[in-house]
Design brief:
With 413 residues, the protein is α/β, with parallel strands linked by helices. 33% of the residues lie in helices and 22% in strands. The protein contains twelve helices and 16 strands.
Length: 413
Amino acid sequence: MRFNRRRFVQAAGAVSLSSALPVRAQSGPIRLGLMTVKTGPLASGGIDMERALIQYLRERNNMLSGRKVELFVGDSGGVPAQARTKIQELVERDRIHLMIGPLAAAEALAADDYIRQAQLLTLSVAAAEDLTQRRPNPWFTRGTATSAQCAHPMADYAYKELKMRRMVTIADDFAYGHEMSAGFQRVFEELGGKIVQKMFPPLTVPDYGTYLAQLKTNVDGIFLGFAGANGFRYLRQFNEYGLLKKVTPVGGMTALDEAVLRNMGDEALGIVTSCWYSAEIENAVNKRFVANFRVDWKYDPGFYAAATYTEAAVLEAALNQIKGRIEDKPAFMKVVRGLKNVETCRGPVSFDQYGNVVGNNYIRKVERKDGRLVNRVIKTYPNVSQFWTYKPEEFLKNPVYSRDYPPAKNLES
């Protein structure tokens, strides 16, 4: 049976019931909202989020825990203020019970106060660190990763196994890029490496020529902290400038995502990235997910598709424990944050006391397989938390990762 997509982008109406009020008996379908990005530079990933969530529901005949599911989709365009408005529309007009999303860290930060006010059950894809750290949102749970959760092990791998000692970082100039780059920098410098240059091009920069002309080449590598299609755009120009022969790129979790890898050529071969997902992961859930996704769309799912597929599995596991009673918001939050070893396409996931995922992180290398480029897993860091190897209480004494924290110790003019 084909899933009938329902998209609503206008809104007005009543805010979700306060948890202080009696829980109504469950009736009717579960109204699930997806806050994604379908226009702008993040659209390739945002569209994959919708495709994978639709697939998950279709595989279950649009039923979770014995209840029909109706899907409502909002498009933020990658604009934080618009994301907040669209989330409000999903709640107040479409009366969603729960939201999966938003996509970007800056969007989640912009909507944080509204999520708290509306007590909106949220399974987030956005990687904004502090929503599960210093200012944990009690209605927010994340089954993907914080911005730096995969950058920490990438720095460890770059220093210990790739033997890199001097590096440059470049990332999109918004919260996700700042936090990811900072996490990489912290671990790399603490191991003894040097970050000698940091660059933050605007998310919508039309051309990277200026940044490529400024790039220091007396280094071992460059860390790419891009989102959406920007990793593809940067690497293409990086290659055109002849820099692939001089500087070795390594990437964060979305730099060479499968959503853009399919448009790349030999310039991507051999590049190592770090992520909580790869389409090459060998488990039963992932094999089914990848096979069905390829039938529909003719390419492999990546970070963004796996994000909503994972969050849907978390949702289903929680609903099964509370017998589908999504209206009981406190019960749902208690259960979802207590989940342990839920089997998903990314592998087993559990949650810490702050509502963030603990799960495997994969070091991946781009190779050709059956004529297409894939991210082959070459090393697994098991049970990686948002705090890496640091003690949470010590980690949280420091400021949130940012463009300027931690300050780079070895920048060169």
